[in-house]
Amino acid sequence: MKLTSKQVSHLKSQAHHLQPIFQIGKKGLSTEQINQINDALEKRELIKISLLQSNLESPKETAEIIADQSGANIIQVIGKVIVLFKKSSKEENREISLTLPKA
């Protein structure tokens, strides 16, 4: 899903108060973590992920890997925090995507 700058701005404001629900440590990303992130995106649509200080990968590269494998949009990467959005395929989970400004 291609997002407009207005939609990205809206999602940034929605994500501001969220706490990271995943932490990626020195071992980097595992297939299991990507599956869990995918499940969380399906249920919540908008999530934050934090990279621990021990993680050696760059946050931007990590965000791109997750986005490629999950089909999510990278909303922003600030320091070691990644914000991702993916519209849920289930209508009952589409709370945030319904509030997006029209393209």
UniProtKB/TrEMBL annotation:
Domain CRM: 1-97
Pfam families (alphabetical): CRS1_YhbY (PF01985)
Alphabetically ordered keywords of this record: RNA-binding
InterPro entries on file: RNA-binding_CRM, RNA-binding_domain, RNA-binding_YhbY, YhbY-like_sf
SMART domains: CRS1_YhbY
Top-rank taxon, per record: Bacteria
Protein name: Ribosome assembly RNA-binding protein YhbY
GO molecular function annotation: RNA binding
